[in-house]
Write a structure and sequence with these properties.
252 residues; 12 helices; elongated; TrcR; Cytoplasmic protein
Protein backbone atom coordinates (compact mmCIF):
# COMPACT_ATOMS: atom_id res chain seq x y z
CA UNK A 1 0.00 0.00 0.00
CA UNK A 2 1.42 3.37 -1.08
CA UNK A 3 1.89 6.04 1.56
CA UNK A 4 1.80 9.81 1.35
CA UNK A 5 5.15 11.58 1.36
CA UNK A 6 5.59 14.54 3.72
CA UNK A 7 2.02 14.56 5.10
CA UNK A 8 2.46 17.72 7.19
CA UNK A 9 4.02 19.67 4.31
CA UNK A 10 1.27 18.39 2.01
CA UNK A 11 -1.34 19.62 4.50
CA UNK A 12 0.32 23.05 4.50
CA UNK A 13 0.12 23.21 0.71
CA UNK A 14 -3.53 22.12 0.59
CA UNK A 15 -4.49 24.70 3.21
CA UNK A 16 -2.70 27.49 1.37
CA UNK A 17 -3.70 26.60 -2.22
CA UNK A 18 -7.16 24.99 -2.06
CA UNK A 19 -10.56 25.47 -0.46
CA UNK A 20 -10.84 21.86 0.69
CA UNK A 21 -12.31 21.47 4.17
CA UNK A 22 -10.14 20.75 7.17
CA UNK A 23 -11.84 17.38 7.64
CA UNK A 24 -11.03 16.28 4.07
CA UNK A 25 -7.40 17.35 4.39
CA UNK A 26 -7.07 15.65 7.79
CA UNK A 27 -8.40 12.36 6.41
CA UNK A 28 -6.05 12.53 3.43
CA UNK A 29 -2.82 13.28 5.29
CA UNK A 30 -3.61 11.23 8.41
CA UNK A 31 -3.70 14.12 10.87
CA UNK A 32 -6.32 15.45 13.28
CA UNK A 33 -8.76 18.07 12.09
CA UNK A 34 -7.65 20.43 14.88
CA UNK A 35 -4.07 20.17 13.63
CA UNK A 36 -5.19 21.27 10.17
CA UNK A 37 -7.03 24.18 11.75
CA UNK A 38 -3.86 25.02 13.66
CA UNK A 39 -1.94 25.08 10.38
CA UNK A 40 -4.49 27.52 8.95
CA UNK A 41 -4.21 29.71 12.06
CA UNK A 42 -0.41 29.67 11.95
CA UNK A 43 -0.03 27.82 15.27
CA UNK A 44 1.09 24.48 13.81
CA UNK A 45 3.87 23.65 11.31
CA UNK A 46 5.34 27.14 11.50
CA UNK A 47 8.14 27.44 8.97
CA UNK A 48 7.20 24.22 7.12
CA UNK A 49 7.30 24.71 3.36
CA UNK A 50 4.31 23.38 1.46
CA UNK A 51 4.75 20.19 -0.57
CA UNK A 52 2.75 20.12 -3.82
CA UNK A 53 1.16 16.65 -4.11
CA UNK A 54 0.10 17.25 -7.71
CA UNK A 55 3.56 18.23 -8.96
CA UNK A 56 5.08 15.28 -7.04
CA UNK A 57 2.73 12.74 -8.61
CA UNK A 58 0.78 11.91 -5.43
CA UNK A 59 -2.54 13.52 -6.29
CA UNK A 60 -4.35 14.42 -9.50
CA UNK A 61 -5.94 17.82 -10.03
CA UNK A 62 -9.35 16.24 -10.65
CA UNK A 63 -9.35 14.95 -7.07
CA UNK A 64 -8.79 18.47 -5.72
CA UNK A 65 -11.60 19.87 -7.88
CA UNK A 66 -13.98 17.13 -6.76
CA UNK A 67 -13.12 17.70 -3.11
CA UNK A 68 -13.65 21.47 -3.43
CA UNK A 69 -17.09 20.93 -5.01
CA UNK A 70 -18.22 18.25 -2.55
CA UNK A 71 -17.38 18.35 1.18
CA UNK A 72 -18.14 14.60 1.38
CA UNK A 73 -15.59 13.64 -1.25
CA UNK A 74 -12.53 11.81 0.10
CA UNK A 75 -9.18 12.49 -1.52
CA UNK A 76 -7.56 9.39 -2.95
CA UNK A 77 -3.83 8.95 -3.35
CA UNK A 78 -2.70 8.48 -6.92
CA UNK A 79 -1.91 4.88 -7.76
CA UNK A 80 1.79 4.23 -8.17
CA UNK A 81 2.65 0.90 -9.73
CA UNK A 82 6.23 1.10 -8.48
CA UNK A 83 5.03 1.12 -4.86
CA UNK A 84 2.77 -1.89 -5.31
CA UNK A 85 3.74 -4.73 -2.97
CA UNK A 86 6.49 -2.68 -1.34
CA UNK A 87 5.55 -3.70 2.21
CA UNK A 88 5.55 -7.38 1.27
CA UNK A 89 9.18 -7.32 0.24
CA UNK A 90 11.07 -10.37 1.45
CA UNK A 91 14.70 -10.83 2.26
CA UNK A 92 17.13 -9.75 4.98
CA UNK A 93 16.69 -6.38 6.64
CA UNK A 94 19.08 -3.69 5.45
CA UNK A 95 21.35 -2.49 8.24
CA UNK A 96 23.26 0.80 7.87
CA UNK A 97 27.04 0.54 7.81
CA UNK A 98 27.31 2.53 11.03
CA UNK A 99 25.26 -0.06 12.92
CA UNK A 100 26.56 -3.29 11.45
CA UNK A 101 29.27 -3.56 14.09
CA UNK A 102 26.51 -3.64 16.74
CA UNK A 103 24.78 -6.70 15.32
CA UNK A 104 26.85 -9.32 17.24
CA UNK A 105 25.94 -7.63 20.54
CA UNK A 106 22.24 -7.66 19.64
CA UNK A 107 22.41 -11.29 18.50
CA UNK A 108 23.99 -12.31 21.80
CA UNK A 109 21.24 -10.44 23.68
CA UNK A 110 18.50 -12.20 21.73
CA UNK A 111 20.15 -15.60 22.13
CA UNK A 112 20.58 -15.05 25.87
CA UNK A 113 17.22 -13.54 26.79
CA UNK A 114 15.00 -15.02 24.08
CA UNK A 115 16.32 -18.50 23.29
CA UNK A 116 12.90 -19.43 21.94
CA UNK A 117 13.49 -17.27 18.85
CA UNK A 118 14.62 -19.16 15.78
CA UNK A 119 17.66 -18.21 13.73
CA UNK A 120 15.34 -17.00 10.98
CA UNK A 121 13.49 -14.67 13.34
CA UNK A 122 16.72 -13.24 14.73
CA UNK A 123 18.05 -12.76 11.21
CA UNK A 124 14.97 -10.76 10.21
CA UNK A 125 15.08 -8.63 13.36
CA UNK A 126 18.70 -7.49 13.12
CA UNK A 127 19.50 -8.22 9.47
CA UNK A 128 22.14 -10.90 9.82
CA UNK A 129 22.91 -14.39 8.54
CA UNK A 130 22.32 -17.78 10.08
CA UNK A 131 26.03 -18.74 10.23
CA UNK A 132 26.73 -15.65 12.33
CA UNK A 133 23.87 -16.48 14.69
CA UNK A 134 25.00 -20.08 14.97
CA UNK A 135 28.57 -19.01 15.76
CA UNK A 136 27.34 -16.78 18.59
CA UNK A 137 24.99 -19.50 19.90
CA UNK A 138 27.87 -21.97 20.04
CA UNK A 139 30.29 -19.28 21.26
CA UNK A 140 32.65 -19.94 18.36
CA UNK A 141 32.54 -16.39 17.05
CA UNK A 142 36.03 -14.94 16.56
CA UNK A 143 35.25 -11.98 18.87
CA UNK A 144 32.95 -13.70 21.36
CA UNK A 145 35.15 -12.76 24.34
CA UNK A 146 34.62 -9.04 23.69
CA UNK A 147 30.91 -9.10 22.81
CA UNK A 148 28.51 -7.75 25.41
CA UNK A 149 24.75 -8.39 25.03
CA UNK A 150 22.82 -5.22 24.15
CA UNK A 151 19.12 -4.85 23.40
CA UNK A 152 18.64 -4.49 19.61
CA UNK A 153 15.85 -1.98 20.23
CA UNK A 154 18.26 0.25 22.15
CA UNK A 155 20.74 -0.05 19.28
CA UNK A 156 18.10 0.94 16.75
CA UNK A 157 18.35 -2.32 14.81
CA UNK A 158 14.65 -3.12 15.19
CA UNK A 159 11.47 -1.72 16.69
CA UNK A 160 10.01 -2.81 20.01
CA UNK A 161 6.77 -3.79 18.28
CA UNK A 162 8.70 -6.06 15.89
CA UNK A 163 10.51 -7.75 18.76
CA UNK A 164 7.27 -8.23 20.68
CA UNK A 165 5.59 -9.72 17.59
CA UNK A 166 8.43 -12.18 17.08
CA UNK A 167 8.36 -13.21 20.76
CA UNK A 168 4.60 -13.73 20.70
CA UNK A 169 4.88 -15.80 17.54
CA UNK A 170 7.55 -17.97 19.15
CA UNK A 171 5.35 -18.40 22.23
CA UNK A 172 2.37 -19.50 20.14
CA UNK A 173 4.51 -21.96 18.21
CA UNK A 174 5.93 -23.47 21.37
CA UNK A 175 2.47 -23.77 22.91
CA UNK A 176 1.17 -25.48 19.76
CA UNK A 177 4.00 -27.99 19.93
CA UNK A 178 3.11 -28.79 23.52
CA UNK A 179 6.38 -27.64 24.99
CA UNK A 180 6.57 -26.98 28.72
CA UNK A 181 7.93 -23.57 29.62
CA UNK A 182 9.57 -22.66 32.87
CA UNK A 183 8.56 -19.58 34.84
CA UNK A 184 11.55 -17.64 33.53
CA UNK A 185 10.73 -18.53 29.94
CA UNK A 186 7.09 -17.58 30.43
CA UNK A 187 8.09 -14.14 31.70
CA UNK A 188 10.26 -13.61 28.63
CA UNK A 189 7.39 -14.43 26.27
CA UNK A 190 5.28 -11.41 27.20
CA UNK A 191 5.31 -8.14 25.34
CA UNK A 192 6.52 -4.86 26.79
CA UNK A 193 2.95 -3.63 27.32
CA UNK A 194 2.02 -6.79 29.22
CA UNK A 195 5.15 -6.75 31.35
CA UNK A 196 4.49 -3.14 32.39
CA UNK A 197 0.97 -4.08 33.53
CA UNK A 198 2.17 -7.05 35.61
CA UNK A 199 2.34 -6.64 39.37
CA UNK A 200 5.78 -6.43 40.89
CA UNK A 201 6.98 -9.63 42.53
CA UNK A 202 7.76 -9.55 46.28
CA UNK A 203 11.41 -8.99 47.03
CA UNK A 204 11.41 -11.59 49.84
CA UNK A 205 10.43 -15.24 49.39
CA UNK A 206 6.99 -16.11 50.66
CA UNK A 207 8.52 -18.70 53.01
CA UNK A 208 9.89 -15.97 55.28
CA UNK A 209 6.88 -13.65 55.17
CA UNK A 210 5.97 -12.34 58.60
CA UNK A 211 9.54 -12.07 59.89
CA UNK A 212 9.14 -8.30 60.02
CA UNK A 213 6.89 -8.83 63.10
CA UNK A 214 9.25 -11.33 64.73
CA UNK A 215 10.43 -10.43 68.23
CA UNK A 216 13.03 -12.05 70.46
CA UNK A 217 11.08 -11.19 73.58
CA UNK A 218 8.64 -13.82 74.86
CA UNK A 219 5.08 -12.90 75.67
CA UNK A 220 5.63 -14.02 79.27
CA UNK A 221 8.50 -11.59 79.69
CA UNK A 222 6.22 -8.62 79.10
CA UNK A 223 4.65 -9.13 82.54
CA UNK A 224 8.09 -8.85 84.21
CA UNK A 225 8.93 -5.49 82.67
CA UNK A 226 9.17 -2.53 84.98
CA UNK A 227 6.05 -0.46 84.37
CA UNK A 228 6.82 2.30 86.85
CA UNK A 229 6.61 5.84 85.53
CA UNK A 230 9.45 8.37 85.51
CA UNK A 231 7.97 10.07 88.58
CA UNK A 232 8.76 7.00 90.68
CA UNK A 233 12.50 7.59 90.25
CA UNK A 234 12.80 10.63 92.44
CA UNK A 235 16.34 9.80 93.60
CA UNK A 236 19.12 7.32 93.06
CA UNK A 237 17.92 5.01 95.85
CA UNK A 238 14.51 4.62 94.29
CA UNK A 239 16.11 4.05 90.90
CA UNK A 240 18.05 1.03 92.15
CA UNK A 241 15.03 -0.33 93.99
CA UNK A 242 14.42 -2.97 91.36
CA UNK A 243 11.11 -4.86 91.40
CA UNK A 244 11.08 -8.41 92.70
CA UNK A 245 14.31 -8.01 94.72
CA UNK A 246 14.85 -8.47 98.45
CA UNK A 247 15.39 -5.37 100.56
CA UNK A 248 18.52 -6.88 102.05
CA UNK A 249 20.16 -7.24 98.63
CA UNK A 250 19.52 -3.65 97.51
CA UNK A 251 22.52 -1.30 97.49
CA UNK A 252 22.76 1.22 100.30
Amino acid sequence: MAKLLHPKATAVWLVDNTTISFKQIADFVGMHELEIQGIADGDVATGVKGFDPVANNQLVQEEIISAENSPLHKLRLKFNAAASGEEKRRGPRYTPLSKRQDRPASILWLVKFHPELSDGQIGKLVGTTKPTIQAIRERTHWNIANIQPIDPVALGLCKQSELDAAVQKAAAKKAAEGGIMSDDERRKLVSTEQSLEMEAEPKFPSAIEGLETFSLADDDDEDDLDTRSDDAFADADSFFNLPGGDEDEQPR
